[in-house]
Amino acid sequence: MSNLIGKITAELVEKDSIIPDHLVEKINVNIRPLEPVNRDDVHIRAMYVVSDQVNSFGGIFPADEHQKLIEHLIDSPVLVGHRKDSLPIARNFHAEQVALNDANWVKVYFYWLKNSKAGEELKNNIDAGIYKECSISFIFSFPECTICGSDIRDCRHRPFHNYETPSGEKKEAYFNYRRIDKVLETSLVYRGSVNNTSITKELAFQKADDNSSLSVKQPPAIPAVNRIWNFDAIDQQARYLVMPAYEALPVILEKSGDVIQLRRQDGAPIQSNHISKMLGTLRLPQINFACDCRLIGYRGKERQKISELGKFVCGEQSSVSRAELKMYDLINLDGVDVLSLNALGRREKLEELFGAGKGMLPPVELISGDKLHQALKKVGTRYGVEILADDSTERYLFTKRKLAPAIIRSREECGGRFKYNLAVSIDGKELPAASALMSPLDLSVGEKIDIEATSVHETGDTIELLDPIISDWYGQYGCRHTLSSLHRPHGKKLLGNYSLFPISQEEFHLALDYGDGANAEHYAIRHYSPRLLDSGRMFLMEKSEITGQISSNVQGTGRIISFTNNDGTLVIDLDGFLCGKFAIRPARLNGKMARVFCKVGNI
Ligand SMILES: [Zn+2]
């Protein structure tokens, strides 16, 4: 029977303000730190992790399994589950069975070092009751039914249901956690962050990966990267880590024992002589880890395109002569997934492991959302910046060019060229592109590519790409990029809609509908061209009374995010077909009052 992962939340963390000497001794004996610790070096606290009472899942940790659990607990890491805190800084070093409130409990002691900011913060948060609960994850393989003794996945009994026993009495079914194999982690949980009261009918375990000893399990999926071309989606108040962006292949570097492996983002190992050679030159720390990395291709000092790098990795003819690896994020440390912890803590750990100034880490700026422009000036490349939210799992790639990630869904050869049907990932869904793209490039179905377009607009069930060209492609290596944040300005209320439609060859109308029930305002734009508008050209514009059918011929639509009126100049912030800030300002033309329409800056 396969392994299962159990996860139990318990309630208390006990204060032990006076540390008995025998406990400090246990640290030195059980953990064997490089330098033995003494009582002034450490904080020690204890938590009650499991008991032999029925938990909310219907599971019981029978007292005769406690000794086994105690053995597994020692030297397991303690995570701090709340993102404001740093990485695993505490370790379980001793555990014992104790009786409390008519139940048998396992009480586990953990310690961490004093004299670090994170260490003192943790102490204060525990003592102030901020961390009030703890949870334990472990592997076990036998959920034993308390009615019939079989594996409860196989018998007909279900936790919390009543059954009649052979002796005629009614008994509720539960299950015992048996054959405990490993403790994955214990974590301190921010008060209230776990809903502990709901009684689930599901069994409280999930299937562990088959064929996995857990130390070599695949790292968890890195959250998808949101492509953005402005900073509207960024929370002005939140903290971000900003790093230079390169045209690069996103890859995972994993070290497990002596095995050092580069993986694609989907987990598949990358087999390549060039890469093996490069990995052999890296100076890596002793500890096991997995990192989210960027593989960058160079010829001399010039960075090369992603597609050229892909060929280089495959051993094909390529403009790339060497590849470099940069560590952008820490995914797993010593068998513990750390992606749910805060980004700054992960970066600090990376600096500790790889050395801040040794070239394996990209430079970083820690800033609040309203200072992104400054960070862009400091660490931005001609490509853009990568942005990691400190306090959430959001991550962004800001490109200075409008580069949209797409996937090839089907293709047709037409006269030596190829007609590609594309899709774009938004909110976990794949939206098909409204029209096909022609290209002489011979690319495969399923391949991820970067599209450069004048405008990208989501219409609900399709995506409109205006003047799309294929800018680059990822080969077999892929990326997990989406456009989910493109049309989602942070905290901004949408004020209405607009549409742009042609009246004649030379004249377009812009209809602004503020959604307040009043009629839309219509403006006629002379000699309109999307390319010229994007490049900053001003267009003559007149207010117009529109008549006749307009809806059948709309060229593009979108939403009005904001508008301000300054001395007669109307500045409107639009998303969708026309994306960005635009101004309608008064002008004098041939002695007459007129208006001009133009774009006012990209960012
Ligand atoms: Zn049963």
Explain this structure.
The structure is a single chain. The protein has 4 domains: 4-216, no CATH class; 239-371, D-amino Acid Aminotransferase, Chain A, domain 1, CATH 3.30.470; 403-482, OB fold (Dihydrolipoamide Acetyltransferase, E2P); 496-599, no CATH class. Helix content is 12%, strand content 44%. It has 8 helices and 40 strands. Strand 9 and strand 10 (170-172) form a beta hairpin. The structure holds zinc ion. Zinc ion binds next to loops.
Short description:
This protein is mainly β and 603 residues long.
Count, helices:
8
On the 0-100 scale, what is the average pLDDT? 81
Tally of distinct domains: 4
What percent strand? 35-45%
What Rg is obtained from the alpha carbons, in whole angstroms? 30 Å
The termini sit apart by 57 Å
Helix content: 10-25%
Outline: elongated
The biggest sheet amounts to: 10 strands, mixed
Low-confidence segments, ≥5 residues, pLDDT <50? 82-86, 191-219
List the helices and strands and how they pair.
Elements: E1 4-10, E2 13-15, H1 21-31, E3 42-51, E4 59-60, H2 66-73, E5 77-80, E6 90-100, E7 103-113, H3 117-127, E8 131-145, E9 162-164, E10 170-172, E11 175-190, E12 205-207, E13 225-228, E14 239-245, E15 249-256, E16 259-263, H4 273-280, E17 289-299, E18 302-303, H5 306-313, E19 322-333, E20 336-337, H6 343-354, E21 365-368, H7 372-379, E22 384-389, E23 395-399, E24 403-414, E25 417-426, E26 429-432, E27 437-439, E28 448-452, E29 455-458, E30 463-466, E31 469-473, E32 481-482, E33 496-502, E34 507-513, E35 521-526, H8 530-534, E36 539-543, E37 556-566, E38 569-574, E39 580-589, E40 592-599
Parallel strand pairs: 4-11, 5-11, 13-23, 13-32
Antiparallel strand pairs: 1-8, 1-12, 2-3, 3-7, 5-6, 6-7, 8-11, 9-10, 14-21, 14-22, 15-16, 15-17, 17-18, 17-19, 19-20, 22-23, 24-25, 24-28, 25-26, 25-27, 28-31, 29-30, 33-34, 33-37, 34-35, 35-36, 36-40, 37-38, 38-39, 39-40
Bound molecules: zinc ion.
